[in-house]
Amino acid sequence: MIDLRSIHKSYVTGSNSLHVLKGIDLFVDKGELVSIMGASGSGKSTLLNVLGILDNYEKGEYYLDGQLVKEMSEAKAAILRNRMLGFVFQSFNLISFKNALENVALPLYYQGVSRKKRNKMALEFLDRMGLKEWADHLPSELSGGQKQRVAIARALITKPRVILADEPTGALDSVTSQEVMDIFQEINAAGITVIIVTHEREIAQRTDKIIRLKDGNIEEIIFNQHLQKAAI
Amino acid sequence: MHLFDIDIWQEILSTIRKNRLRTFLTGFSVAWGIFMLIILLGAGNGLQNGVENQFKSDATNSIWIYNGTTTKAYKGLQSGRNIEFNNSDYEFVRDNIPGIKEISARYYMWQNRLVSYKKEYGTYDLICVHPDYQVIENAIITSGRFLNNVDIHNYRKVAVIGRKVSTSLFKDGKDPLGQYINVNKVPFEVVGVFRDQSERDEERIYLPISTVQMIFNGGNRINNLSLTSDLNAKQSEELEATLRAKLAQRHQFDKDDPGALFVNNTIKQYQKFQNLFIGIRIFVAFIGMFTIIAGIVGVSNIMIIVVNERTKEIGIRKAIGATPASVIGLILLEAIVITAFAGYIGLVAGVGLLELLSKYLPQNDFFQNPEVDFSIAMISTLLLVVAGALAGFFPALKASRVKPVVALRDE
């Protein structure tokens, strides 16, 4: 599903150049549940942005579902994001003046789905997240866990191939975090590839594969069974 | 992106509805700009209408000549001499000076102005003139006729009365035409009724100059000459100089004597006012332009703020699949919708206020019917909408280039 070949990425600020990703090789298969861990500054968010076509990269090759993603026009990237990817963020990134239903329905608006149809689908997805009664509430009227579930519903509504989550539990308490992880596991069980950036061990533990980054390189890849062994 | 896709409008309307303060601020600066522009244009036109109306009661191409007293000694004659005109001056000017279209002399009747009909009576302005005076005064005949040359020639005792004279004397409802009114106990037959742009002039009675001179001891004296011509302002000044010179010759006074003769040249005055209006128009256009520019600057400022404020929202939209074009469209259409609607509000408010003003403002000689050319109002509103769109375009373009990752970066 995802195939990265020696990806390099640096940020240029004035005369300084910060080399963030120093040749990442990574393969994520269809239907995997993967977490990316690493200290802050290790490049994990940058990697996720590259994966999400939210940011470009200088060297290397990135194949998404067999398609090379490189020097893409903004419009093409937007369409690809819309069709293939779903995003979940630490700070939820819901549009504050839209209610839960409208937020969930928005990706379908950009697909040209009719209002009636997309609202019906949005309600269905909210129902799946147990939030049907909250459909007409603004984000400010929802708890953190509820907001994240709305965001997940929004990520899922386009039936993406890959869900990319950037510290999805970073702003949630431990109980809610576990609930959110339950949802990710469910999604994954349905065959969608899920990639989670996190620094929480409990979250990473519940994924199939942990990719540990250090200074822009992959330090190690730990498979779930090894991790559980190590924990015992 | 389809412009007539109802979803785009729903998206914009919901954004507008949920950002009321921002919408209000943008809209207000546009509405205010248009409102001020309309008021300004209306006030300029009102001033022009008022002053033009002043001229309407008289011909705008007339020259009036009044006799005076000499202030300079001339050819052995002392200063302080009264100059008096008589019928021969009228005939001389009429027959010998080119460029004159209509001409009339006038004999003043200051005393014995009592006019009666049956038991009704009043004092009115008695204007004793030649038939051409109708054009000079812009008197509009509503029934019957004005004075004619036969009246003058035959010393007929006929009168043309103003609308107000008619209503106050003929209270019995009779048609004044053919009735006799007594002017200082002498019966005159009413042959016409007129109205005039100036209400005061409707309290006048026009009488044939020859008849009055004969009956009321006028001899051949006349008090002034008035004439019209189709000359332009510069030519009219030449005519004025010719008149001065010829009359000076006839009455033995220095043609440069400022007191011997008074000339009132409405052609020159009218030209002056025309120039004033051109000045006012340039002024209004100038102010209007700056008002529009201020509006445009206001709109662009707000659009820049709006885009900054919405950076995160735009980032979210892009992350979930909004193309740059759809981002530009969203912001641009919102700017256009707001400016068009607000511009329309300003237009209606401005026109409405002008309507109220022209309806309820007390009649004023120098300010009448403030109005705006509707096409100018529409054009300026459109201009502001286009400018609003342009003002919104560059911030929108900037917004469309925002990298979602930058926009979404957590603070």
Describe the structure.
The complex is a heterodimer of chains A (232) and B (411). With 232 residues, chain A is of the alpha/beta class. Chain A has one domain: Rossmann fold. Chain A has helices at residues 44-51, 74-84, 100-109, 115-128, 144-156, 174-189, 201-205, 224-231, and strands at residues 2-13, 16-28, 33-38, 59-64, 67-68, 85-89, 162-166, 193-197, 209-214, 217-223. A 6-stranded mixed sheet of chain A has the order 6-7-8-3-9-10, sandwiched between helices. A 4-stranded antiparallel sheet of chain A has the order 2-1-4-5, with helices on one face. In chain A, strand 7, helix 6 (174-189) and strand 8 (193-197) form a beta-alpha-beta unit. The model of chain A has no long low-confidence stretch (mean pLDDT 89). In chain B, helix 2 runs antiparallel to helix 12 (374-400). In chain B, 41% of the residues are buried. The mean pLDDT of chain B is 84.
Relative strand content of chain B: 15-25%
CATH architecture of chain A: 3-Layer(aba) Sandwich
Q: Kindly state the mean pLDDT of chain B as a whole number?
A: 84
Element string of chain A (H = helix, E = strand): EEEHEEHEHHHEHEHEEH
Unreliable residue runs of chain A: none
Biggest interface goes to:
A-B, 31 and 29 residues
Run of helices and strands of chain B: HHEEHEEEEHEHEHEEEHEEHEHHHHH
CATH class of chain A: Alpha Beta
Q: What oligomeric state best describes the polypeptide chains here?
A: heterodimer
Low-confidence stretches of chain B at least 5 residues in length (pLDDT < 50)?
Answer: none
